[in-house]
C-alpha cells in the first residue's frame, strides 16, 4: 500500500533534517528544531540557518535565530510543517522577516530510461560552468560570495548516503545542464535539487535528460519516494508538473537581511 501524502511529507521532512545535520560543521539544538552552521561558507543561508521540524514557539523564533546566527549577516528560518509555518508568519513579519513558501513535490510516474549524455561528475567539474552562470545571474555579486555559492556544492556530499552531481554533456563534451541527486536507499527517499542549464544551452532538452536520468537512478537505488522543492510563483513548478511531479505539502522560509548585499539567495 502506498503512503498517504501526510506520511510522505513526514518522511521527506525527516530526510531534509538529516541532510542538513550531516553536512553542517556545527549543530545547535533548539526547542522545536535546531540550527546548522558551517564556518567555511558563512554567506550560504542553506548552511547557516534555523530549521524548525517540530512544535516551536513562533514568538520566540526570532530571538533564537539572533542567538545562534548573531555572528552572521543574515537570519534564515526554515519551517517544514505548513501549519506551523503559517503560525510563524505574523510574528516573524513583525520581527522584520520576509516570508516565502516552498512546494514539496513528489514524482509518482514510472521514471524514463537514463540518458547516455548524462553522467555523474565530481563537484569540481561543475565549478567553471556554475561560476559562469552565477555571474550572469548575479553580475554585482562579490568574488567571495560567488566562491562560497560554488564551493558549497562539495559540502553537500556529506549530507546523504549517496550524493551525485549529474551533468548532461554536449557532443563536444561541454557541460550543458546539471543537478544534484541525494539518495538514502535505506529510507527509500531521494531528493532532486538545483537543476541548472547554461543559458546558451536552454531549450535543447538537456535539463529533461538530467531530470529523467536522476529519476531513473533514484528508482534503481530503491528510492520510491522521489521529491524536489519548487517556488510556487516561478515557472519551473509547472515544468515539473508536466513531467509527473505532484504537490503534496508546503514548507516555509523566513529571511531577514542584516546588511544589504551580504547574503545569498538560498
UniProtKB/TrEMBL annotation:
<feature type="domain" description="N-acetyltransferase">
    <location>
        <begin position="105"/>
        <end position="266"/>
    </location>
</feature>
<dbReference type="GO" id="GO:0016747">
    <property type="term" value="F:acyltransferase activity, transferring groups other than amino-acyl groups"/>
</dbReference>
<dbReference type="InterPro" id="IPR016181">
    <property type="entry name" value="Acyl_CoA_acyltransferase"/>
</dbReference>
<dbReference type="InterPro" id="IPR000182">
    <property type="entry name" value="GNAT_dom"/>
</dbReference>
<keyword id="KW-0808">Transferase</keyword>
<protein>
    <submittedName>
        <fullName>GNAT family N-acetyltransferase</fullName>
    </submittedName>
</protein>
<dbReference type="Pfam" id="PF00583">
    <property type="entry name" value="Acetyltransf_1"/>
</dbReference>
Amino acid at each position: 500500500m502506498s503512503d498517504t501524502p501526510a506520511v510522505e511529507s513526514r518522511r521527506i521532512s525527516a530526510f531534509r533534517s538529516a541532510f542538513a545535520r550531516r553536512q553542517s560543521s556545527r549543530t545547535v539544538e533548539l526547542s522545536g528544531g535546531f540550527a546548522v552552521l558551517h564556518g567555511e561558507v558563512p554567506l550560504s543561508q542553506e548552511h547557516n540557518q534555523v530549521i524548525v521540524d517540530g512544535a516551536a514557539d513562533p514568538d520566540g523564533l526570532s530571538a533564537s535565530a539572533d542567538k545562534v546566527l548573531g555572528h552572521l549577516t543574515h537570519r534564515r528560518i526554515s519551517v517544514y510543517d505548513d501549519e506551523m509555518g503559517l503560525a510563524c508568519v505574523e510574528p516573524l513579519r513583525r520581527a522584520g522577516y520576509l516570508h516565502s513558501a516552498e512546494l514539496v513535490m513528489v514524482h509518482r510516474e514510472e521514471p524514463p530510461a537514463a540518458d547516455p549524455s548524462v553522467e555523474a561528475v565530481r563537484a569540481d567539474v561543475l565549478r567553471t560552468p556554475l561560476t559562469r552562470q552565477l555571474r550572469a545571474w548575479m553580475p554585482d555579486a562579490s568574488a567571495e560570495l560567488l566562491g562560497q555559492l560554488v564551493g558549497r556544492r562539495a559540502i553537500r556530499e556529506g549530507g546523504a548516503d549517496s550524493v551525485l552531481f549529474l551533468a548532461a554533456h554536449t557532443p563536444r563534451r561541454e557541460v550543458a545542464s546539471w543537478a544534484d541527486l541525494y539518495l538514502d536507499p535505506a529510507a527509500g527517499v531521494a531528493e532532486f535539487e538545483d537543476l541548472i542549464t547554461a543559458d546558451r544551452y536552454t531549450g535543447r532538452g538537456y535539463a529533461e535528460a538530467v531530470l529523467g536520468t536522476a529519476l531513473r537512478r533514484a528508482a534503481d537505488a530503491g528510492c520510491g519516494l522521489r521529491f524536489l522543492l519548487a517556488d510556487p510563483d516561478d515557472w519551473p513548478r509547472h515544468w515539473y508538473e508536466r513531467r509527473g511531479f505532484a504537490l503534496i505539502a508546503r514548507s516555509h522560509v523566513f529571511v531577514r537581511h542584516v546588511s544589504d548585499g551580504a547574503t545569498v539567495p538560498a
